[in-house]
């Protein structure tokens, strides 16, 4: 069944490819939402529709505020898109499409289509990546832009959604058992409710080596 799913997605990718296209790609408005967290932590992004999944990984890391120090993968149904194993083994033992060879528009083909992005297989941070809008091509749009977002990224290695919830409880309750141990995971000056897209866009500008054009 898994083999059939990856073959179907591979055919979809091949059918969606546009060899020889020279014009600008469409612009995708996507929303990245961290699952299992309330109130939600999310980012709204504008990205080129032909962005490969390996670059989408980089964009999500920058936009969310992760440090890219763990493994990751994308899931479309039962098919995985991820980094190829240098020894030829598939990621987590399942057939894997090379994330450098698959673009967003080959998988997210209409509004409301979505893909799951998992970061850090130990803490298992799952993100829903949903296509909200397909916007017309703009020759001045040169790299991804963070339009809006809510709440700060959890600290790395804090134990996933459950550890994060315990950490927030420690901030609220001075009498919580093990409070001091939990507070050790919190970076100095970290505010769970804070998010500013400006530093994100500056980092995206540096990463892609372009001047930020702003939302179209």
Name the features:
8 strands, Structural Genomics Hypothetical 15.5 Kd Protein In mrcA-pckA Intergenic Region, Chain A, globular, 2 domains, alpha+beta, 8-stranded mixed beta sheet, 28% helix, 216 residues
Give a concise summary.
This protein has 216 residues and is of the alpha+beta class. Helix content is 28%, strand content 24%. An eight-stranded mixed β-sheet has the order 5-4-3-6-7-1-2-8.
Question: Would you kindly provide a written description of the structure presented here, covering whatever features stand out?
Answer:
It is a single chain. The chain is of the alpha+beta class and 216 residues long. The chain has two domains: 2-151 and 197-208, Structural Genomics Hypothetical 15.5 Kd Protein In mrcA-pckA Intergenic Region, Chain A; 157-194, no CATH class. The protein is 28% helix and 24% strand. The protein is built from six helices and eight strands, in the order H-E-E-H-E-E-E-H-E-E-E-H-H-H. The chain has helices at 2-16, 53-64, 104-107, 160-172, 179-183, 197-208, and strands at 27-34, 41-48, 72-76, 79-82, 96-98, 114-119, 125-135, 145-150. An eight-stranded mixed sheet has the order 5-4-3-6-7-1-2-8. Helix 2 (53-64) packs antiparallel against helix 6. The chain is globular, with a radius of gyration of 18 Å. Residues 211-216 have low confidence and may be disordered.
Strand content: 15-25%
CATH class of the largest domain: Alpha Beta
What share of the residues lie within helices? 25-40%
**What's the domain count?**
2
Order of helices and strands: HEEHEEEHEEEHHH
SS element count, helices: 6
